[in-house]
Amino acid sequence: MVLGADSAESTGRALTGRDAAMDGALAALYGGGRPTGRKGSERSAGLGASAPSVARWLGDIRTYFPSSVVQVMQRDAIDRLGLSALLLEPEMLEAVEADVHLVGTLLSLNKAMPETTKETARAVVRKVVEDLEARISTRTKATLTGALDRSARISRPRHRDIDWDRTIRANLKHYLPIPGKDGAGTVIPERLIGYGRASRAVKKDVILCIDQSGSMAASVVYASVFGAVLASMRTLDTRLVVFDTAVVDLTDQLDDPVDVLFGTQLGGGTDINRALAYCQSKITRPADTVVVLISDLYEGGIRDEMLKRVAAMKASGVQFVTLLALSDEGAPAYDRDHAAALGALGAPAFACTPDLFPDIMAAAIEKRPLPVPDKEAHS
């Protein structure tokens, strides 16, 4: 494979056996031409639009490559060769390696999917969702349950909850110099000041507002799963809103993120202002509310109204977070002018990985600076 298409002519040695089969699987995707079957003896192989050829190829790559590579090759096949239509066939879905990107593709095909395929598609989506929940649920709940309420102070804190800056200031009058050491001394902390842990009885309101445009597919998947996890926490009252040019509230489906995902419709226009207007209408306790907008910020609605709404929410005490993406791929193409304008309002826009999301939410709930991951990816 390293030697390239003309390896036999240039070296006098041809690939054989497993090496030739791996080379053929790669050539079918990246070499163009027509399908040639499993042997891979021709570098001009291709997948064409033949379902049997693609099914054999899917089996081949799962045999020869690790799962992470299989997922990349499947994604490339869908993008490069236009194989999305073949995913509408149940036997094809059963052959693919399921991941977040495949789920995004299936959601974009949802309306065109025949009834015979939908149950298979739901099974594929459910497998990915359950894997994601298993990975992110425990840490998310632990991070947010243990979030410190920095507005509450206690006088007998545990060691890890001590606010050392305020404790030292409060005990400076108990400073004692150390004999024989000029300028050295110690502070006797007669009164400890600490952070109180968030009470289970005090709820915070969280609104996840998710852009359904096609480029946000992976973000929609992750946000839906996180929404279900947050909704399962008694200390949080979670609302999930998705939008394009219309706004749909999917909060009543949060107990099953698969239902949430099939309630979305990827693609179409974008009206962020309308979506934020809806979210704003649902805020009853601004000081205890976190709004998370997940969008590439390409606004088809009224830009100035959108910014006014964000400014009004922040002025009322709402913690407003703007994520350009919630995925492992980093920020997609996004409207830099809108990102800069939101940054000027104190709502920096940045991409967030799923692993960082619990920390972002904890910081927003605690009303402390957000742990922005990449200074160059936000405004």
Architecture overview:
Helices cover 43% and strands 14% of the residues. It is an alpha/beta fold and 379 residues long. α7 packs across α9. The longest helix has 31 residues. About 3% of the residues have low confidence.
Our Rg estimate from Cα atoms comes to 27 Å
Structure annotation, total helices: 14
- How far apart the termini lie comes to 43 Å
Low-confidence segments, given as residue ranges, are 33-45
Helix share bin: 40-55%
Beta-strand proportion: 5-15%
Q: Please tell me what the overall shape is.
A: globular
Structural class: alpha/beta
Instruction: Give the rounded overall mean pLDDT.
Output: 80
**Strand order in space, largest sheet:** 7-6-5-8-9-10
Q: Total number of β-strand segments? A: 10
Give a quick account of the main beta sheet: strands, pairing sense, barrel closure: 6 strands, mixed
Main attributes of the structure:
alpha/beta, globular, 379 residues, two-stranded antiparallel sheet, six-stranded mixed β-sheet, 14 helices
